[in-house]
Design goal:
Layout: H1 10-31, H2 35-45, H3 50-71, E1 88-89, H4 90-95, H5 97-100, E2 110-115, E3 123-128, H6 129-145, E4 154-157, H7 170-179, E5 181-184, H8 192-204, E6 209-213, H9 214-226, E7 236-240, H10 246-256, E8 259-266, E9 271-275, E10 281-283, E11 288-293, E12 306-312, E13 323-331, E14 344-351, E15 356-357, E16 363-364, H11 370-375, E17 379-388, E18 391-398, H12 404-417, E19 423-427, E20 443-445
Parallel strand pairs: 1-13, 4-5, 4-6, 6-7, 7-8, 17-20, 18-19
Antiparallel strand pairs: 2-3, 8-9, 9-10, 10-14, 11-12, 12-13, 13-14, 15-16, 17-18
The chain binds zinc ion.
């Protein structure tokens, strides 16, 4: 599936060979974690057959649950079987940190990670360097599949510059410099003029890959299309942090002509997945086991949305076992049409707690409303807000082509799914509400 590695000029190939050697001899030992070596191993691992990989995973799972029973106070005395472990969430681990830290944690070097700032619920937590490397290795080998080699120039979009070359960690700055990664276009504001400027600047950099917030890159694309400009984007654009809506995907392809791949990840817990051409999110099977569970912590049948719960095979300093990451998802097939191996999710549909509440007590999760928005051409972004128990506002950001028929299609679908229990109106001129970190949410309830 690697696209053009063989066609690179000699100078580029030499650069990559040199960089790979330097990374293995110097950067990996300094960081204490073999991320590039793991990426190479992972390429081989996915070539094994399904039963060999499943056997490895069963062993890895057995090792981590036995370790947890032995070394983690919260799990002392449990039978070492995953389904005997309670499902835990971030708040539980924040409230009782000592119970979730291993008594042998000094044996496992960590990086300190930060999560949840964008949802207003921040947490600093230790993650084993080995567990961190698994996620990074997955990105390296997945990006390779799409023609971007480790060390190709990359541009991060929508991140604060403090995460890049101005990062307070010297080691991070070193790694970014070695990898030719640059951070640009910080901040989360998304007005049209700024977005167009950003798009022009980003294209002028002539990097091989952009990596950034889905909404940031979608806004850049929308601004380019609105201005009737044609820009030449990088070969690969990877969007992260937010779902990549079909309308956004179309706009980005139309504006920049790039291959666009959606990434879903949860650093806490350790999930990494990339959406393939056939539409499924391929999970990093070597990193963790992902379950999709219903309200009573039972496995959801295929196609039914449920809580995404992860068990990390590699985190020992503070194991993440049956950890609810706070997203709602739908499990996908093992035999994806694209030919890639392993487990998948078909969708990540929103955050837990994001639902519309009907007067009869029914909860409508975001996926309930997707259909018309994926069908109509005239809507670029949408958001459903329930200001009180009896009413619902459908906010849309329209394109010039948005028309009365499309409006009717949307309204009748939303009214029908709401069982006609709510007073539904559509607005095309209200600002969208974002999370404190600038993420777009599609369902918001104000009570
Ligand atoms: Zn696939």
């Amino acid at each position: 599936m690697r696209t053009d590695a063989g066609r690179r000029p000699l100078a580029a190939r030499l650069h990559h060979k040199g960089l790979a050697l330097t990374t293995r001899l110097a950067v990996e030992p300094i960081l204490g974690t073999p991320f590039l070596s793991l990426a190479d191993e992972r390429e081989q691992w996915v070539l094994q057959n399904e039963s060999e990989r499943e056997a490895w995973r069963a062993e890895a799972l057995d090792r981590i649950v036995r370790y947890a029973v032995r070394c983690v106070p919260a799990y002392a005395g449990l039978e070492p079987r995953l389904d005997h472990f309670p499902v835990v969430d971030k708040q539980t681990m924040i409230d009782r940190p000592d119970e979730f830290l291993s008594t042998r944690r000094d044996e496992h070097r960590v990086v300190w990670k930060h999560t949840g700032g964008s949802t207003g619920d921040p947490w600093n937590y230790p993650l084993d360097r080995r567990a961190w490397a698994e996620g990074y290795a997955t990105q390296i080998y997945r990006f390779r599949e799409f023609g971007v080699e480790y060390g190709d120039p990359k541009l991060l979009l929508g991140f604060p510059t403090s995460l890049g070359l101005n990062h307070k960690s010297r080691i991070r700055r070193l790694r970014f410099a070695v990898e030719r990664t640059d951070v640009s276009l910080a901040s989360i504001e998304v007005d049209g003029t700024r977005s167009l400027e950003r798009a022009v600047q980003a294209c002028d950099r002539h990097v091989r890959m952009w990596y950034g917030y889905a909404s940031t890159i979608a806004s850049m694309a929308a601004a380019v299309l609105d201005a009737a400009r044609t820009l030449s984007g990088p070969p690969l654009i990877v969007t992260m942090a937010e779902p990549l809506w079909p309308a956004w995907h179309r706009d980005i392809v139309d504006a920049f002509g790039s291959t666009v791949v959606e990434e879903y990840g949860a650093n806490d817990g350790g999930i990494m997945a990339h959406r393939c051409e056939a539409g499924n999110l391929h999970l990093a099977d070597h990193q963790s086991l992902v379950e999709v569970l219903d309200d009573e912590d039972r496995a959801c049948p295929p196609g039914q949305p449920g809580a995404i719960v992860v068990t990390n095979f590699h985190a020992r300093h503070m194991p993440f076992i049956r950890y609810r990451v706070g997203d709602i998802g739908i499990e996908g097939t093992l035999n994806c049409d694209c030919g890639r191996a392993g487990r998948t999710l078909t969708a990540v549909t929103g955050r837990s707690g994001d639902f519309v509440l009907l007067p009869d007590g029914t909860q409508l999760v975001p996926a309930t409303f997707f259909l018309p928005f994926n069908q109509v051409e005239g809507v670029r972004r949408w958001q459903i807000v329930q200001p009180d128990p009896r009413s619902l506002v459908v906010r849309v950001e329209p394109r010039a082509s948005f028309n009365a028929d499309e409006k009717k299609t949307i309204l009748s679908w939303v009214r029908q799914r709401s069982k006609d229990q709510l007073d539904v109106r559509l607005s095309d001129d209200e600002p969208f509400e974002l999370t404190s970190g600038g993420k777009h949410r599609i369902v918001i309830r104000h009570f």
